[in-house]
């Protein structure tokens, strides 16, 4: 009854990159690196299939970071002279590239890994792209002088790649927008409009992922300041409900998000995060089934997809594998319980 999927990223094997890091350095280069990326992609597709997931992804194995993996293939961006900038409303500092000229794609961005994944699984394939608002929050603008204008420029490029990914055989294209939980008013105002521009013309399933971030120290500390109820979704969900985006991925397990927020997404498929990415403890199938059961008070059975809260990239490989198995087992138990 309840299909299962991951939010996006998975840990990189030690032979590909540094482990348990959000910005890992590659362990090799050139043709060897390309082969290592391919091997890691195929590895994780097999792990997801063996775990019993219904929707699989490439695990973002070919990307150092979920935003920079895209913008590295964009002309008009200076990566040679990165600057330190506070991102996510100064939650933490990051070394970011600078936008110095009009933006244009150098060519295809993710053809290699998308076509590889499509050729090696018969499961539904989801592919993730960074959302335009989150990209804007992760680069330094030295050219446009206007966040909305720059976001729309990125949205056009994202749309070009998304249409190409659809032609590659991708079933679901998901845009990751953690910035929606930081700049709530702007997200509801122009963020959703930029998102829809990025998804324009797609006939495959479209999705957006909005979470409270990876399980890294800066994010965990930020969550401690949000109080007993996290109501950030309350701002953007009504705008998303009116949008053309078909699926919304949200954080749920071990969070302080009031579950009734899901009611604001009437008419959408809801990817309910039932796996905590900030805690290495492995959820039991019973815990996952109970979380799904509580979510069913606010989401129709045919609209609920069991998912992870966010990406698993900074976790250990063993923990990630165990959590994927728990996800599938918990959804199966919930299906038996609530059929």
Brief rundown of the structure:
This protein is an alpha/beta fold and 339 residues long.
Shape: globular
N→C terminal distance = 7 Å
Number of strands: 10
Low-confidence spans: none
Mean pLDDT: 96
Question: Would you write up a description of this structure?
Answer:
With 339 residues, the protein is α/β, with parallel strands linked by helices. It is built from 10 helices and 10 strands. The strands form 2 sheets. A 7-stranded parallel sheet has the order 1-4-6-7-8-9-10. The termini are close together.
Topology:
Layout lengths: L29 H22 L3 E3 L10 H4 L2 E14 L4 E14 L5 H9 L4 E7 L1 H5 L3 E2 L5 H21 L4 E5 L7 H15 L6 E6 L6 H7 L9 H9 L5 E4 L18 E7 L9 H11 L8 E5 L8 H22 L1
Parallel strand pairs: 1-4, 3-5, 4-6, 6-7, 7-8, 8-9, 9-10
Antiparallel strand pairs: 2-3
Helix pairs in contact: 1-3, 1-10, 5-6, 6-8, 9-10
Give a quick set of tags describing it.
alpha/beta, 7-stranded parallel sheet, 3-stranded mixed sheet, about 20% strand
């Amino acid at each position: 009854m309840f299909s299962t999927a991951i939010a996006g990223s998975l840990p990189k094997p030690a032979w590909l990159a540094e482990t348990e890091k959000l910005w890992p350095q590659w362990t090799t280069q050139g043709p060897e690196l390309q082969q290592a990326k391919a091997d890691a992609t195929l590895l994780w597709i097999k792990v997801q299939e063996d775990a019993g997931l219904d929707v699989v992804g490439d695990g973002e194995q070919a990307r150092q970071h979920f935003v920079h993996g895209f913008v590295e293939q964009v002309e008009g961006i200076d990566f040679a002279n990165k600057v330190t900038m506070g991102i996510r409303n100064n939650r933490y500092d990051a070394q970011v590239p600078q936008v110095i000229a009009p933006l244009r794609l150098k060519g295809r961005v993710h053809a290699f890994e998308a076509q590889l994944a499509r050729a090696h699984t018969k499961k539904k394939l989801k592919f993730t792209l960074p959302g335009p608002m989150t990209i804007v929050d992760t680069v330094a603008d030295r050219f446009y002088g206007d966040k909305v204008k720059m976001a729309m420029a990125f949205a056009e490029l994202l749309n070009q790649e998304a249409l190409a990914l659809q032609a590659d055989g991708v079933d679901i294209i998901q845009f990751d927008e953690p910035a929606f939980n930081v700049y709530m008013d702007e997200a509801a105002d122009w963020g959703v409009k930029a998102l829809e521009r990025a998804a324009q013309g797609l006939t495959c399933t479209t999705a957006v992922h909005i979470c409270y971030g990876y399980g890294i120290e800066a994010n965990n500390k930020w969550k401690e300041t949000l109080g007993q109820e996290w109501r950030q979704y309350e701002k953007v969900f009504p705008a998303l409900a009116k949008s053309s985006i078909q699926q919304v991925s949200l954080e749920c397990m071990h969070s302080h998000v009031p579950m009734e927020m899901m009611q604001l997404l009437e008419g959408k498929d809801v990817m309910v995060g039932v796996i905590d990415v900030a805690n290495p403890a492995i959820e039991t199938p019973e815990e996952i089934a109970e979380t799904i059961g509580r979510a069913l008070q606010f989401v129709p059975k045919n609209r609920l997809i069991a998912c992870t809260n966010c990406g698993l990239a900074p976790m250990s490989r063993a923990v990630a594998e165990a959590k994927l198995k728990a996800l599938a087992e918990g959804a199966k138990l919930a299906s038996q319980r609530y059929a």
